[in-house]
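Marked as duplicate of an earlier ticket. Keeping the data here for the record.
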Amino acid sequence: MATEKKNGKKAPADKVQLWKREPGWDKLREGEEAILDGYCADYIDFLSTTKTERRVHAQLVELAKKRGFLDLDEVNKQGKKLKPGDAVYRAIDGKTVLIARIGKAPLAEGLNLVGGHADCPRLDLKPYPLYQDEELVLLDTHYYGGIKHYQWTTIPLALYGVIIRRDGKKLDIAIGDNPGDPVFCITDILPHLDVDQSKKTMREGIAAEKLNVVFGSRPVDKKNDDKEVSQKAKLNILRLLKATYGIEEEDFASAELEVVPAGNARDLGFDRSMVLGYGQDDRVCSYAAARAVLDYNDIPEKTIGALVVDKEEIGSYGRTGMDSTFLPNCIAELVAACDKNYSDLTVRRALEHTKMLSADVGTCADPDYKGVNSDGNMGRLNCGLQVNKYDGGGGKGGASDASAEFMAEIRKVFNDNGVVWQACELGKPGVGGGGTIAMYMARLGIQVVDCGVGLMCMHAPWEIAGKIDIYMAYKGYMAFLVNA
């Protein structure tokens, strides 16, 4: 029987050990807790300032530029050639980006990639969102991704996004998180009058069309009063928007505005062992993937990359989603920049020999909801990075289902590099399910497995992650990129 390492020590070859899913604090190496604390502090800052996929993209591109990464499209336009050790990025539509460092091996031998998504469940404003009812000015919304409607009522909300004015000027909107900013909210009925509401299911109690955001109530000043206008509070809001941003109501048609929870991510627990924040699905993994590539300063054996995409929460569709040509196009651009003679066959070989971690979050056992747990296969908070051989729903519907050989390779990389990890699945078969970007990568011939941080309260306005798991994502992704 082969001897395996556990906690850095070799177990006797003839000794049988039970595999345990246990907290990873005692498995940290000497001096590693300080590194963990520093990384988690950086992550909290990142999470607090990247409330939308556009802001994630902007920060990652800015970090890449500061560290000397070149725009791959510009490299090819100028006819330059990349060599091992060179660092590049390629971005699209301000939402999706690949950050890569060129390795020694030819691209035809494949890349090592870690890919996550930057979009999160939220409320999007409709094309013409402003309306007035009962002296209140409200914003009409369309929810994005899987949410529980009732969780979004009576909490402070912020408004982020872009507006393209008639004259073509792009305005960056951010209201609700800066000191002194107003916040917004969605109302709920008082318990004294909820007889009818309380008879409904949780899903029905707050209808999607009732997720309307309170935006104002003050009528236009009397000196500016237009007696022909009935919606005077709405008129006042429009005048304020005109004075502040120079926008007309029609400009909402060329806008992307997102309603998200207001407030910063925070340490959770008296022992500060967890993080509470909005958007950890999936920015906890995307940040770790990007940092792993950005922080690696040597020349890797194979080209390594972090892929941060959009639209995962609604099926990965659209040109910024994973079910698009963005990644194959990126590989083609890399081949053009690295090889003297471009070949489509090289691109196809590069894809088929690529190995990838689909860096999306999993779930953790909740002591108050044990009925959905898959007993010994359920992930647990602070027990390490989760590896999910498959996801999907029902009979593995929508899953890519990684091979035993690839699982063995990932297991060895993590064990050899001191990564605390746990093999998991989402929950009991038949209870529910979920998908990631893995199936779209597998379609391209890429070897891929789901590997991410387990969360509690996933898709809620405020999600919980354990600091061991947060740090092990960074450590695990770095180990995979360099050693797979």
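See parent ticket for discussion. The chain has two domains: 15-120+278-483, 122-261.
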